[in-house]
Amino acid sequence: MNLKTVDIYYFSGTGNTLLVVKKMRDVFVEKGTEVNLLKIEKSSPEDVNLEHTIGLGFPVAGFSTYPFVWEFIESLPQTKGTKIFMVDTLGGFSGGIVGPLREKLKKKGYKPIGAREIIMPPNIFYIQDDETCKKKIEKGLEKAQKYALEIANGTSSWGRTPVLSDIMYYISKGLIGSWKWRSQHKWFGFKADKSKCNQCGICVDICPLNNIEMKDHPVHGYDCEFCMRCVSFCPRNATPCKFNYKGKAYRALRANAFLNDE
Ligand SMILES: Cc1cc2nc3c(=O)[nH]c(=O)nc-3n(C[C@H](O)[C@H](O)[C@H](O)COP(=O)(O)O)c2cc1C
Q1: Distance 137 CA to ligand 1 centre (A)
Q2: 211-221, pLDDT tens digit by residue?
Q3: Which residue, 28, 58, 211, 241, shows the most beta carbons closer than 10 Å to its own?
Q4: Domain 5-171 CATH (choose: 3.90.850.10, 3.40.50.2000, 3.40.1190.20, 3.40.50.360)
Q5: 7 contacts 21 by C-beta, under 8 angstroms
Q6: Closest C-alpha to 79, from 108, 47, 114
Q7: Is the CB–ligand 1 distance for residue 13 below 6 Å?
């Protein structure tokens, strides 16, 4: 397959997906393809160049993905045969995304050429020890490399599991939809610890939903979709995560490396 230019639209909360799409970019570039990595939170669907091959990269969340990622995908323009592939990263199980996403994109006129789910360290609930995370990342990046080669060689595919994936799609849509409820934010919402915070403002800058406002300390609004960025990249660990075991946070790369990529 001749991939002249690939535009990969991606979102990454804690760095796993960023590492994966960067690995894929390196493979494509080696094959002579021009690659643009574009952040979903800073892109407009109407600006997508339909002459290029499109890639979508995102984390699995609630067996699906974040509502704002869905919004971006659902707002992609109609086309006639633009090639598209997806890659998601996950802790273990998704179920409600690969098949339904393929159907949505096909209806818009895209030609799905590949889908892959890549297991990376979980960034929620139970954060594994550094060594285990490191091994998982290495394995995940090997898979990303293989997948990119398949796409470049024209041997990748985008399958679906009918019925099961559709059922999972509706269950997960309900689940992620409930993240907008104010009650969820009351119980699970992030709150900065004033005694640790030095008002550096990093959390305000990196929140993909512009949901954090700096007053005498960062104040989180009700638009949070629990991507974990503010928790993971706070230099003072000042934003604890209530639902992670012992409040531990995960990040796939150093804060500096992530922030310089911003
Ligand atoms: C709110 C939330 C929900 C998640 N839901 C799932 C899930 O349903 N299934 C799963 O396998 N992993 C789930 N994960 C784990 C992430 O998908 C996984 O760690 C991913 O690689 C993170 O990518 P990122 O670092 O690019 O944000 C969830 C993580 C978060 C923060």
Answers
A1: 14
A2: 999 999 999 99
A3: 58
A4: 3.40.50.360
A5: no
A6: 108
A7: yes
* Mean local confidence (pLDDT), 41-50: 97
> What burial letters (b/e) apply to 185-194, b meaning 16+ CB within 10 Å?
beeebbebee
Q: Do domains 5-171 and 181-260 have the same CATH topology?
A: no
Atom of ligand 1 nearest to the CA of 228: 31
What distance in angstroms lies between residue 94's CA and the mean position of ligand 1's atoms? Answer: 9
Q: What is the CATH number of domain 181-260?
A: 3.30.70.20
Give 22-43 pLDDT, tens digit per residue.
Answer: 999 999 999 999 999 999 999 9
d(CA 25, CA 8): 8
Cβ contact 50:82 at 8 Å: yes
Both tokens of residue 191?
Answer: 């709150």
pTM above 0.90, yes or no: yes
Residue 89 Cα to ligand 1 middle (Å): 7
pLDDT at 164 over 90: no
